[in-house]
Structures are given as C-alpha cells and as structure tokens.
Amino acid sequence: MRKVMHTKTIVAGLAFLTMSVAMPVLAQAQPSSARPYPAGRAIEMTVMFGAGSAADVTARYLADGMSKLLEVPVPVVNRTGGGGAIGYNHLKQQKPDGHSIIWNSNSISTTYHSGTLPFDYNEFDAIARVSVETPALAVRADAPWKTLAELLAYAKQNPSKVRVGNSGTGSHTHFSAAALLALGGAKAIDVPFGEGQAMVNLLGGRIEAVVQMPAALVAQVKSGDLRVLAVMGPKRDPIFPDVPTATELGFPLSFDLWRGIATPKGTPKPVIAKLEDAIKRTVESKAFLDAGVAIGFTPAFLPSNEFHKVIAGDDTRLAQVMADLGLKKSK
After folding, report:
1. What's the CATH class of domain 44-133+256-324?
2. Class assignment of domain 136-231?
3. Spatial distance between the Cα atoms of 54 and 240, rounded to a whole number of angstroms
4. Low-confidence ranges of the chain (pLDDT < 70)
C-alpha cells in the first residue's frame, strides 16, 4: 500500500513539474493575433516619393514618432512611380491588419481621375491627416514681374513666352499651375519636370516661373534668389506669411495639398484608433512642429472620420477641375 501511494505521489509531482515547464513555452507560442495590436510586429509605411525628398523626410519624422509610441519599428519603403499608382496598388494588395500603411495625399484622386489608377479612395480607410502644404508660384528674384497680376498679364499678351515648371504631368503642382493660368487667361506653357528638376531649370533661366510646394522654395527664397508671387490656399501659408493668396489678388482658387495615413479597406476599428492616437501625439509633438518649420509644411492633424470627409470633398473638387482642364479620363 505504501508503494502504491508513493508511486502516485511521484506521478503527480512529475505531472505538475511538466505543466510548470510547459506553461511558459505555451505562453511564448501564442499567436501574435492574441496579443494587442501591434503585437510586436513592424508597421511598414509606403512612401510614394523618392528618398531624401521633402515628402519622404516628413514621412520619416512621422514614422519615427509613431515607432516610439507604438514600440515597434515603422520602416519607410519608397515605392515611386505612376503619380502614386505603384504605391496605392501595393497597399491595396496588403492585409487590412494595420501592419501596412501609406503616406497618402490628394494624389489618390488625381491618379484615379487621370485614368492611371483603376480604383479610388474608397478602397482605403483614412486614418488621420498629418500636414498641409500650399502650392506657391515663384519667379527668379531678377524677373521683371513683381506681382502675380503682372506675370499673368504679360503671359496673356505674349502667348507662349512664359514657361511655368511643375513637378510632373498629373502632379498636384501641375493641376495647380494649369488652373491658375486658365483662371488668369494666360497663354503660358506648362512644363512638367521630374522630381527636383523644376527648381534647377528656374534658377538656370530655362523657364520663367514654377509652381512648387514651400519646402522646395524656402531655401532659395531665404537666400534672395527667388520671389514668391502668390500661394494657392484658402489662407496665407505660415512659411511665407507676407505672400498673399491668389484669392486675395483676384484669382479665387484653393489647392492645398494634404498628406496623411491610410490603410487597406476593412482595417479593424480598434487598430485605426490606435494608429490615429499615435499619429495625433506625434503631429502635436514639439519635434514634429519644429520639423514643419525647418522643412516647409504645416502640421494639421485631423482624426479618421474628419479626414475621410476631406478626402471625399477634395475628390469631387479635383474631378471637376480636371474635367474643366481636359485632364479627366471618362470612365
């Protein structure tokens, strides 16, 4: 009888020991889906602009802040081409689990309405708006035109004598420039360039003006090489507070460029909320505000629901502008 009891005690002890050893292993083996998002997994951010560009640098400031708050890596992957189409196509194919995000902009609408992209903004969940940039028209400091009205009047009276550079066919600066020239009745030549080339050609005297974002202009304006004649936003840009808006000067149009974060359609709401919170805290941080001043963008956080409304309204407006300019593909 004693032997039986002793054997049972040993078996029970071994069973307890086995369970004690196995429990930590089982805990480690739990699938990441059972852990709160982001569950220790990286969140890849697609950026549709070249490495080192102002948009890319801004995205990296955002990714760095999000990484610290979410305690996971947020690597930036540059996927350029097609006016953003390559980046959007990539994101659409990813799982809607919050581990693939995109640094998006108004380009979701321009690429769709130009026929480059077969789907529109409805294929994505808007997470948060991050920043706003205002297109600006600039000339060399030694140009004869001191005001926007003078430049447009000259271009109207001298057809094809003024060449206005932008960042490429289908780019936001292309549409902004075309709309302003059309509104002013100017007969200027639109000149699309690859990334960064518009500024080089303006400074080299091969074109007479450019429409670019403040980040591309601020250094040359500070050095005295360029003069900004107008900004194309609903209000003056804090980067160039002394420069009037086109609307103030009698040419009513507004073409702010927003940038933000989106995910594939169907991303769970708790995941959206967590991403939105990390973005908000990053955008409102001193480091990000300082980056805006240095790079040339305005931090402008909006939560998911409000950001979605901005995208939808902007899509309708851009579709009309592109149709008026003959740049919209019929579906």
Report:
1. alpha beta
2. alpha beta
3. 17
4. 1-33, 195, 331
